[in-house]
Design brief:
The protein is mostly helical. The protein folds into two domains: 97 residues, RNA polymerase sigma factor, region 2, helix turn helix motif (Rna Polymerase Sigma Factor, Chain: A); 88 residues, Orthogonal Bundle (Arc Repressor Mutant, subunit A). It is 72% helix and 0% strand. α1 crosses α2 and α3 packs across α4. The longest helix is centred in the N-terminal third of the chain and has 23 residues.
C-alpha cells in the first residue's frame, strides 16, 4: 500500500511561515523523497545522502514555488536532478578505490541474502537499460503503486502519456529481462522495491 502524498496545506503553511513550518514540510515529505531516491538512484547512489540533499535544496528554494499545487512535481524534479548528480559522482568514484558499505539483512540466511542482492542487481540493470521517461513511469506506477493521475501530476505530463509510457516500459522491461535472464516473474519488481 502506498502512502498518500502530504496535504497541500503543509506546503501553503511552509510558504507563508518560518523555519518550523518548513521543517514540518520536510519531515512530511522525507519518506517520499527517500523512496524516490532509493528507487530511481539504484544501487550506486546513496539514497540517504540524495534524499538529504534533495530536502536541503527544497528548503533553500521553497520561495521559488508560486503555486502549492505544483509543489509535488517541483520536488520530484529536484530529486531527479540530485540523483543525476549522485550518479555522475558514483561513476567517478568507481575509478577511485574506497571502502564498500555492506548492510546485513536481518533474519535471512547468507544464501538468501546473496540471492536477493543478485536479483536486485538484475532488476536495477534492466531498469537502467530502459529510457529514463519509461523508467520513471514504471517505478512510480509499479513500485510506488501510484495511480495514473498522480503520476501525471508528479511528472507534469498528460494522463494519456503516462499510460503510453507505462505500456512501453512494461514491454521494454519484459524484453530486456527475457534477453538477459530468461523467463520473467511479474512479482520481481515488488520484491526489489
Amino acid at each position: 500500500m502506498r502512502p498518500a502524498l502530504p496535504d497541500t496545506a503543509l506546503t501553503v503553511a511552509a510558504m507563508d511561515g518560518g523555519d518550523r513550518e518548513i521543517d514540518a514540510l520536510a519531515h512530511a515529505w522525507l519518506p517520499h523523497v527517500y523512496r524516490w531516491c532509493h528507487r530511481f538512484g539504484g544501487p550506486k547512489v546513496d539514497s540517504e545522502d540524495a534524499a538529504h540533499e534533495s530536502l536541503m535544496v527544497m528548503c533553500r528554494r521553497l520561495s521559488q514555488v508560486s503555486d502549492p499545487e505544483v509543489f509535488p512535481a517541483w520536488l520530484f524534479s529536484i530529486c531527479k536532478r540530485v540523483i543525476a548528480n549522485q550518479r555522475r559522482k558514483a561513476w567517478f568514484l568507481r575509478w577511485v578505490p574506497g571502502p564498500v558499505k555492506e548492510r546485513p539483512a536481518s533474519g535471512w540466511s547468507p544464501l538468501r541474502t546473496v540471492e536477493a542482492r543478485e536479483q536486485a542487481t538484475q532488476v536495477w540493470r534492466v531498469l537502467g537499460a530502459l529510457p529514463e521517461i519509461q523508467r520513471e513511469v514504471l517505478v512510480l506506477s509499479v513500485l510506488e503503486e501510484r495511480r495514473g493521475p498522480e503520476v501525471a501530476s508528479l511528472l507534469n505530463i498528460p494522463l494519456g502519456t503516462v499510460k503510453s509510457r507505462l505500456r512501453l516500459a512494461r514491454i521494454g522491461f519484459k524484453e530486456q529481462w527475457a534477453e538477459r535472464y530468461g523467463a520473467l516473474d511479474l512479482n520481481i519488481l515488488k520484491e526489489v522495491g
